[in-house]
Amino acid sequence: MSLFTPRFMQQWVRGTGYRLQQVRQQLGFVSPLTDNDYREVAEWLPPQAIELFHTMSQADQQHSLRVLRGLRERGCSERDMLSAALLHDVGKAEGRVPFWTRPVIVIGKRLARGWLSRMVVDPEHALFAGLAPWRCSLSYAWYHAEVGARLAAKAGLSERSILYIRTHHEPNGPAAELHVVDDVS
Fold first, then answer.
1. I need a labelling partner for 7 at 20 to 30 A (CA). Which of 14, 23, 43, 163 fits?
2. CA-based nearest residue to 83, from 149, 128, 24, 32
3. What is the rounded distance in angstroms from the CA atom of residue 4 to the CA atom of residue 24?
4. Does residue 28 come out as left (phi exceeding 0), alpha (psi in the -120 to 50 range) or beta?
């Protein structure tokens, strides 16, 4: 049986197109949010968390807003889930996760998960301070959900929103709906 079935090829083309669009956005080919966009963000985040939202790149802000809107289109009205949507990738902000780490993480998770998991260290761990800069960047990328959850807690988000941020990469976890929308946004 051939690996290159029509369904496989369709998924591959769609996935590749999605990743290329992400690359384009991360390179800066993205419009800044409008005043209306920021008003929409302010509907769902407490004031101290809005500052945290502003630490993200324009591309990550646009992505987070697409995730929020995607959840709403699916009928989600849970405030905690929608505020988590806006900050689910904040652990990548402020230069913690440079552009080059994103494809390394995506490819590494598929082809070299064991090696990648040995290269990374939780940024809260004492060993983190002694890592080479490239390993710090990979570690932040790998642990961005946990880092984002810690930042969201400091910004006063609810325990439930923090849980959703922490688990947004778990397909069957508490934030499964966020995971689904994040994957296609």
1. 23
2. 149
3. 27
4. left
Segment (H or E) for 120:
none
Task: Identify residue 168 by its one-letter amino acid code.
Answer: H
The CATH class that applies to domain 33-184 reads mainly alpha
Nearest to 52 by CA among 90, 97, 95, 98: 90
Q: In angstroms, rounded to a whole number, what is the distance separating the alpha carbons of residues 124 and 19?
A: 30
What are the tokens at 14?
């769609």
Tell me: the pLDDT tens digits for 20-58? Answer: 555 555 556 668 899 999 999 999 999 999 999 999 999
Yes or no: say if 86 and 45 are a contact pair by the CB < 8 Å rule.
yes
Helix, coil or strand: residue 29: coil
What is the distance between the alpha carbons of residues 50 and 178, in angstroms, rounded to a whole number? Answer: 19
Cα-trace Rg, the chain: 17
Query: 163: Cβ–Cβ under 8 A, 6 or more apart, which residues?
Result: 149, 174, 175
How far is C-alpha 13 from the geometric centre of its chain's CA atoms?
22
Share of the chain above pLDDT 90, in %: 73
CA–CA distance, 8 with 13 (Å, rounded to integer): 9
